[in-house]
Amino acid sequence: MPGKAAQLDAQSWTDAWSPRRPLATDDLLRGCWRQSRTDALTRRYLEHSPKALLSMLVIDVDHPDTLLRAISRPLEHPEPSWVAEGVSGRGHVGWVLSSPVCRTDAARQAPLVLAARVQEGLRRALDGDPGYAGLLTKNPTHGSWHPFWGRAQPYELGELAAGLGRLLPRSLPKRAGEVRGLGRNSHLFEALRTWAYPARYRYEDRIEWEQTVAAVAVNINTEFAVPLPAGEVGHTAQSVARWVWRNLSREGLVRVQTVRGQRRAAQPSATAARSKAGRSSTPAQTEARRRNAAKASLARRKVTAEQMAEVVL
User: Fold this and answer.
1) 106 and 33 housed in the same domain
2) Residues 194, 50: one domain?
3) Which of the chain's ends, N or C, has fewer CB atoms near its CB within 10 Å?
4) Domain assignment present for 268
5) What are the pLDDT digits (tens) for 166-204?
6) Residue 61 lies in a domain
7) pLDDT in tens, 214-263
């Protein structure tokens, strides 16, 4: 266990908790709504990160030994920042990020993908619930839960990735039906903007454009085994639609496509060039190239003179 001076506490967690008007509720079955920070902190469940920034990674542990899984030694995962456990032993485990990950239309894809991989690694380490939407978490400062305060220093994503070791997945699933957790956000964002870039030039009415993007986002979301909440899908669709409309015009796309076409026409592909060279070579030239390549390969391996003679002859 870390020393007391190295531990998080309720006040430092509140300071690290960044949403301005978070979603919050006392009863998940009755829904949630946006509230002031002060009001949200009195609720049993609240939004752990703003819509635009991922500031915490949270895993839902649907087992009666959440705390034991979170702090057991030897750790197969980085020490959590906090744990909020219920009377049943089920709870949420969280890691505070020192550098929040952007989730808007201006986001770089690499950090989003790494965050999704890290989240999946943490879920595997704790055998967390793969269906957890990741939107609301148990409020560790609320009296309904038994809190455990862990490491006070926030984590960099790379540090979490290194701490997971073999549990960090090398990549995310390619099929939407196999994607879960934060990976759904990344997959939805990437698939939606990949569709939107070339589709933009077909639309001249902004309202029609935004409605179409929203419909495509909903269709992508239905492919997930556990779909994202409608609010998250709508936010992503709105973000992508507005950015693409603002930054890509029909005339601009035509200019880009024209330039790309001119470049392709002016530069024959490497495959065609190699094919042409092969057709113009004589059998003797082809054999000479083969021998030269073999000599170079053997030289790199520091072969003996007898081995070299075998290749030449």
Assistant:
1) yes
2) no
3) C
4) no
5) 999 888 777 766 677 777 877 888 889 889 988 888 888
6) yes
7) 988 988 888 887 788 788 888 889 889 988 898 887 676 667 677 778 88
